[in-house]
Amino acid sequence: MKNKLLNIFLFCILFLTNANAQDIHFSQVNETPLLMSPANTGFFNGYTRAIINYRNQWTSMGNSFGAAFNTGVVSVDGGLFKSRHRKSFLGLGFTWAYDRAGSANITKNNVLLHISGIIKVGKKGVLSAGISGGVDNGSANYNNLRFASQFNGNYLEDNAALNGEKNFRQFTTTDINFGMAYEWSKVKTDQDHDDVTSLKFSYGLFHLNRAVQDFMPGSNYRMPMRHTIMINAVHDFEDTKFTIVPVLVAHMQAKAYQMIVGSVVKYRMSTGTKTTGQKTQNAIGFGLYYRTKDAFIPQLTYDMDDLSFTASYDFNVSNYRTVSRYRGGFEIGIRYNKLASSLFDARREFK
Fold it and tell me: Residue 142's domain spans which residues?
């Protein structure tokens, strides 16, 4: 199993490099599962999951961009008819993503409903397929932009001057996405803590309908489809309090692509026992990720029963670091996962 994990990660590192994706993105890829694939809907250890993510990027630019890039996502999902006595169940979820960027305050709101079908295959495998659909709204404040035609001979501040450009306008389109996922896992039962090893692969295909981004009259630009591949794993080291959670994500959209690779190591500070009936844990974790040719991303996590708190920061190391001074984006996440902290059989109830 360890050799399989190593070979997968080495293969992806060798054949993928970085570019900038066009969709919104988060560094905490494990904390935004529904942005990775609709097939992740309801596909987790637990019954109900709610996550809030917020990202603030490029504040170090000052007025270079006119405004920092602010991105937020709220997601809720869970399993319907989920039980250890059933080999299949449905996943149902909802996401609202918000993004505002640049001097023109270009704003996008994306609201999606997700549904998936999840089925057990064999003794250790689970397969999922999902779709999501909803609306995508875009707007911008065109008056904040300045053009050469507004130069009055001394300075570029003549707001009343005509710029000869077409105005942006608000528009709303539909958005349709598809995904598949597969997880292999095994559990070794222990008196103190059930040790879990799992490997999950997910694929997401976004913007299937390639909706026109109608910011101005006559626009015929269509949103490119995005392909997202995610490989993540969990491994509890037997007879220790340590867990490693490696992950690799690759986004490909039009001619752009982006990859994030890294891992979190968690340490269980308190552990329940089967004798006392306590089934929860508190754990602290530290991780380090790398977005190729862009940023190093240290991350801190704290798990407290069914709640998890995550904070990370992007240290920009691209050619843009001369201007950014190595400062990129701050990101925080809060996750509630009912039953996520169970240490024993209930932790893998469906598996």
Answer: 2-348
Could you tell me the CATH number of the domain that includes residue 178? 2.40.160
- Per-residue pLDDT reduced to its tens digit, 169-223: 788 999 999 999 999 999 887 666 678 899 999 999 999 999 988 877 777 889 9
**CA atoms of 146 and 160, how far apart (whole Å):** 11
Distance CA 350, CA 186 (A): 12
Give the list of residues 6+ apart from residue 174 with CB closer than 8 angstroms, or none: 133, 134, 135, 136, 209, 211
pLDDT at 86: 78
Write out the two tokens for 283.
Answer: 């754990």
CA distance linking residue 145 with residue 154, whole number of Å: 18
Q: Which residues contact 81 (CB under 8 A, 6 or more apart)?
A: 89, 90
What domain count does the chain have? 1
Rounded-to-integer distance, Cα 20 and Cα 34, Å: 20
Predicted confidence at residue 232, as pLDDT, reads 96
Q: Rounded CA gap, 232 and 198, in Å?
A: 8
DSSP helix/strand/coil, 64: coil
> For residue 38, what are the CA distances in angstroms to 116, 154, 228?
7, 54, 11
- Residue 2, pLDDT score: 45
**Within 13 Å, how many C-alpha atoms sit on residue 192's CB side?**
9
Q: How far apart are CA 132 and CA 212, in angstroms?
A: 18
Extract the runs of DSSP E, i.e. beta strands, from 189-294.
Answer: 195-206, 226-236, 242-253, 256-271, 281-291
Lowest model confidence (mean pLDDT) among 170-174, 194-198, 258-262, 276-280: 276-280
HSE, side-chain direction, 13 A CA sphere, residue 251: 24
> Nearest 10 degrees: CA dihedral of 168, 170, 174, 180?
70
Bridge partner residues of 113 (DSSP): 94, 133
Q: List C-alpha distances in Å: 192 to 33, 78, 189, 339.
A: 29, 28, 9, 17
> Hey, is 163 helix, strand or coil?
coil
Measured CA to CA in angstroms, residue 62 lies from 57, 58, 191, 210, 258 at distances of 11, 8, 55, 34, 26
